[in-house]
Amino acid sequence: MATLKEILAKKIEEFRPRTTRLVKEFGDVKIGDVTISQAIGGARDVKCLVTDISYLDPHEGIRFRGKTIPETFEALPKAPNSNYPTVEAFWFFLLTGDVPTQAQVDEVIAEWKTRQVVPSYVWDAIRGLPRDSHPMVMLSVGLLAMQRDSKFAAFYNSGKFNKNVAWESVYEDACDIVARIPIVAAFIYNLKYRSDFQVPIDPKLDMGANFAHMIGQCEDYKDVARMYFILHSDHESGNVSAHTTHLVHSALSDPYYAYSAGINGLAGPLHGLANQEVLDWTLKFQEKYCKDQEPTKELVTKALWDTLNSGQVVPGYGHAVLRKTDPRYMSQREFCLNTPGLKDDKLFKLVAMIFETAPGVLMEHGKAKNPWPNVDAQSGVIQWYYGVREWDFYTVLFGVGRALGCMANITWDRGLGYAIERPKSVTTAMLEKWAEESKKAASN
Ligand code: AMX
């Protein structure tokens, strides 16, 4: 049986001529124009990134390797006694586009075990931080501390660096990072919230199950972890964490530097930190409005307007690309509705009420182009229900999942030899000149 790396090597070899031909023969074909509002407004919709790992349609939502979320869950081999695939099966699929056999999944699970040794100086680096540092700082520092192990950096410094095979050492780092990041995350959780009570990995368990085990969670949480990490893995290339990782790696910074930077982007409240903000908003709402009464749509409406009128965003709602409810939201909602206990949970019911109310309020407010919920509006309530109530940790969970997409993407970036990223800037005076010229041309 060919290994994952051998299958990947064959796929990259086969794919390369497509990229080379596009650049060589069709390099001048235009795929879009850039407007002044795109240049000033965060490059929204500017088509200048390429990935085949996932695609985000504004109306349909995400497809991983051509498959919707339900199709992905359906197609992949499941974890033992579970309706969900293992993260390892998903990793194989994300990297190659092939649905692995059970034997191939078992091989990835076994291989990750060999990579799960985190050097003790990583723990020292994290322990050296003030205990009230944000867990995303700890995750970013933990990743950077592991950079000493980078096989890509070692290959680059070996004097034998060769562009054609550079992807192989990125792949090695990528596998090390995805295998180790849940261990680092569990360490941070136990350090911060369980009085440094550290639990060793259980070599019999797959990644999701092992994460549940390390943070002292119950049997049912194993599926929560698998589902969570898969859903948060990839959202095409333009989001801040994926794009940052791609950008930093394009300078041939190794995957540790690149993903540590990606994690720093994920820590922004408009991006991954929104999951923590959603829980914070919802609990503050309960505290302020529902001490002596049950939540009602009227109270939720009032709280939403209070947020908007104070100039803040409603966390968990809106999206730069999506123009409908995020299927990652729906997938988690379905999980809640199918989980006895969770479907009747007070917080879940409140989140469901916000879902019924917020889109109308945002439409009336008239600013957000997408008034529908994104992934972050639903994820915290599941963690809360299972007892992971330290909501400043939620973005770390996002970061564990997002590692899969970012690492798969930069492995392919190197495989296809993507160039250092370097868009061109212009000055405001140039924009004003072009604006005047366009006005004159329109009036002639
Ligand atoms: N609440 C209030 N106002 C919102 C809003 C929301 N949820 N979503 C968008 N708006 C506002 C924007 O702030 C912007 O206002 P401005 O004109 O005064 O600057 C206006 O509506 C137009 O914005 P947009 O084009 O609809 O969105 P965008 O592409 O600029 O930003 C996003 C997208 C996600 C940052 C934005 O919708 C937002 O801030 N949402 C809340 C935070 C959040 O949930 N982030 C997580 C996104 C998913 C993820 O990455 N994890």
Automatic annotation (TrEMBL):
Pathway terms, separated by semicolons:
Carbohydrate metabolism; tricarboxylic acid cycle; isocitrate from oxaloacetate: step 1/2
Q: Name one GO molecular function term.
A: citrate synthase activity
Q: Which Gene3D superfamilies does its entry note?
A: Citrate Synthase, domain 1, Cytochrome P450-Terp, domain 2
Q: What is its EC number?
A: 2.3.3.16
**Mind listing the UniProt keywords for this protein, alphabetically?**
Acyltransferase, Transferase
* InterPro entries for this protein: Citrate_synth-like_lrg_a-sub, Citrate_synth-like_sm_a-sub, Citrate_synthase, Citrate_synthase_AS, Citrate_synthase_sf
Q: Does the keyword Acyltransferase apply?
A: yes
| Top-level enzyme category | transferase
Protein name in UniProt: citrate synthase (unknown stereospecificity)
**Which organism encodes this protein?**
Geoalkalibacter halelectricus
Q: What is the lineage of its organism?
A: Bacteria, Pseudomonadati, Thermodesulfobacteriota, Desulfuromonadia, Desulfuromonadales
